[in-house]
Amino acid sequence: MTETPWEPPLAGTEVEHLVGALERLRMTFRWKADGLDAAGLQARVGASSLTIGGLLKHLAANEDYMFNVKLRGEPIGGPWVDNGWEDDNDWEFSSAADDKPEELYALWDGAVERSRARLAAAIADGGLDQLAHISWPDGRHPSLRRLVCDLIEEYGRHTGHADLLREAIDGRVGEDPPAGWQPVGARV
User: Fold this and answer.
1) How many CA atoms lie within 13 A of 154 on its CB side?
2) Which pLDDT belongs to residue 133?
3) Would you state the pLDDT for residue 1?
4) 51 backbone dihedrals φ, ψ, rounded to 5°
5) Residue 147 CA, distance from chain mean position
C-alpha cells in the first residue's frame, strides 16, 4: 500500500483514471472537512451561506443519488429516508446546521462506501459505456462514464469551496492530504 492511496495512476486504464480522479477529490474533500467541531462545520465566509457541514451532507446525497437514482432508477434509500431528505437544491445545505458533527461525518463516510460498491459493481457488470436509468427530456440516456464525470465535477467545485472555508476556519491549506493521513471525523 502506498502512503497516498488516493493518487490516480500515472498510466492506467480509463476506468482506473476516472475512478482515481474521483477518489483523489473525495479524499482531498474529506481532508478539508476533517476534524471539525460543530462551530467549524457551521462556519461561513463573507456573504456565502456555504458551510463545510452543508457540503458534507450535499456531497453525501450526491453520492447516493448518482448511483442509486440516476444509474439504477431506485429510490435514494439509505439514511435519506430516515433523515427527512427533500429533493431540492438547498435542503442538504440548510438542514446540516441541525446535525451533529459525528452524524455529518458518518453520513458522508457511509454514502461514499455505498457509492464505491455500487460503482465497482456497475463497472464489473457493464463498464462505462452502459446507459443509466435516468433520461434527458428527448429520451437519451447518459452513460455511466458521464455520471462518473458529473460526480468528479461536483467534487471539484465543492472541494474548492471547502478549501476556502477550511483556510478561514483554521488555516489548513494544501492540495492533497499529507502522506499517511487517515480521516478522524468530528473533534470533540
Assistant:
1) 19
2) 97
3) 45
4) -135, 160
5) 13
pTM above 0.85, yes or no: yes
| CB contact at 8 A, 122 and 67 | yes
3 state DSSP class of 173: coil
Q: What is the pLDDT of residue 2?
A: 52
**188: pLDDT confidence band, cut at 50, 70 and 90?**
low
* Furthest C-alpha separation in the chain: 50
Give the residue from 41, 38, 32 showing the smallest Cα distance to 183. 32
> Which three cell numbers mark 118?
455500487
Q: What is the DSSP letter of 131?
A: B
- Grid cell for residue 73: 432508477
CA distances from 135 to 3, 64, 68, 142 (A): 40, 18, 14, 7
Cell representation of residue 67: 448511483
In angstroms, rounded to a whole number, what is the distance separating the alpha carbons of residues 54 and 35?
15
